[in-house]
Specification:
Length: 278
C-alpha cells in the first residue's frame, strides 16, 4: 500500500520523537552534578531510559513511513528533527527561541517542503536485484574504510570531522537498507525478513554506524562531527536511492534551479541548526 501523505505523517512523527529524545537526554546529562560521570548519573534516571527508548520508537516510525512512500520523501522530512529540537529545548530551558533559530528553522521547513513538492518523488523497485547492490556496497566499504583509516592519523578536530562524514554516510546506507527491509516486510511479512539478506545487512550497517559514531564523538568536540553527520546522511541516501532503488525526482528544466536551491538551503540549515543544538 502506497500513500505519500501517510509517509510524510509517519516521517514527521519519527522526527518529532527523535527531537524529544534528544532534548531529554541532553537535559539530564547537562544537569549532572559537577565531578560526577554524566552518563552514570543519567542512567539512574528513568526519564533518561525513556528518552533512549524513543530511538527505537522513532526508527519503527521511520520504517513504517518507508513502507508507505519512497526514501526520497521520507529522508528530507526526517531532517526536520533538528527544527523540532529547538522549540522543545526552549520549553525545557524556559527561554525564548532566538531570531537566528527561527530564521534557520523556517528556512529548513521551506527547503524540505520545496524538495517534496517541486521534486515530486516517485518510488522505484521494491526489491532491487543483488547485482545492483554489490557495486554500491563495495564502493562504500572501500571508500569509508579508507576515510576512517585516514582519520585515525589526523589531529582530534580533523579526525572528528572525517569520522562524522563516515558516520553520516553509513547511516545513509542504513536509510536505504531500511527502505528495502520495509518493502520486503510489506511484500512477504516476517518470513520474508528471515529469508532475505537485507535485514542482516541492515543490522550490520546499523551496528557499524553506531560504533563509528561513538568514535567520532570521542575524537573531538560535537560541533566538529555532528554537522558532518547531518550533511553526509541525506546526500548518500539520495544517491543510493537513485542508483540502487531507482527512485526519481520528477524535475524538468528551470525546476532544477529551484530544486538545487532548496537542497542547498536544506544542507545549510542542517549545519547551522546542528551547531545551535549542541
Amino acid at each position: 500500500m502506497h500513500s505519500y501523505l501517510l509517509a510524510v505523517l509517519f516521517a514527521l512523527a519519527s522526527a518529532l520523537t527523535i527531537a524529544w529524545g534528544t532534548v531529554v537526554r541532553h537535559r539530564i546529562v547537562e544537569n549532572a552534578p559537577a565531578g560526577s560521570s554524566p552518563i552514570l548519573v543519567a542512567m539512574r534516571r528513568p526519564l533518561w531510559w525513556a528518552g533512549m527508548s524513543t530511538a527505537i520508537i522513532a526508527y519503527v516510525l521511520q520504517v513504517v513511513a518507508l513502507g508507505f512512500g519512497p526514501l526520497l520523501i521520507v529522508q528530507p522530512v526526517l531532517v526536520m528533527s533538528l527544527m523540532f529540537t529547538l522549540p522543545l529545548s526552549a520549553v525545557y530551558e524556559g527561554r525564548r527561541i532566538s531570531r537566528r533559530e527561527t530564521f534557520w528553522s523556517a528556512a529548513l521547513t521551506v527547503a524540505v517542503t520545496a524538495i517534496v513538492l517541486v521534486g515530486r518523488p516517485v518510488g522505484g523497485e521494491d526489491h532491487p536485484p543483488l547485482e545492483r547492490w554489490i557495486p554500491a556496497l563495495t564502493v562504500g566499504v572501500i571508500v569509508l574504510v579508507a576515510m576512517d583509516r585516514f582519520a585515525r592519523r589526523q589531529i582530534r578536530r580533523e579526525r572528528a570531522l572525517i569520522q562524522g562524514l563516515v558516520t553520516g554516510a553509513v547511516f545513509g546506507y542504513v536509510a536505504v537498507l531500511s527502505k528495502a527491509v520495509a518493502d520486503v516486510f510489506v511484500e512477504s511479512g516476517f518470513i520474508g525478513l528471515l529469508t532475505n539478506w537485507e535485514v542482516y545487512g541492515l543490522t550490520l550497517a546499523a551496528t557499524l554506524g553506531t560504533w563509528v559514531q561513538q568514535n567520532a564523538f570521542n575524537a573531538g568536540a560535537l560541533r566538529n562531527s555532528l554537522p558532518a553527520m547531518k550533511i553526509a546522511e541525506p546526500i548518500v541516501a539520495f544517491t543510493l536511492g537513485y542508483l540502487v532503488l531507482f527512485e526519481r525526482f520528477q524535475v524538468d528544466g528551470w525546476e532544477w534551479l529551484l530544486f538545487g536551491a532548496a537542497f542547498a538551503t536544506m544542507i545549510a540549515s542542517t549545519v547551522v541548526l546542528s551547531r545551535i543544538n549542541i
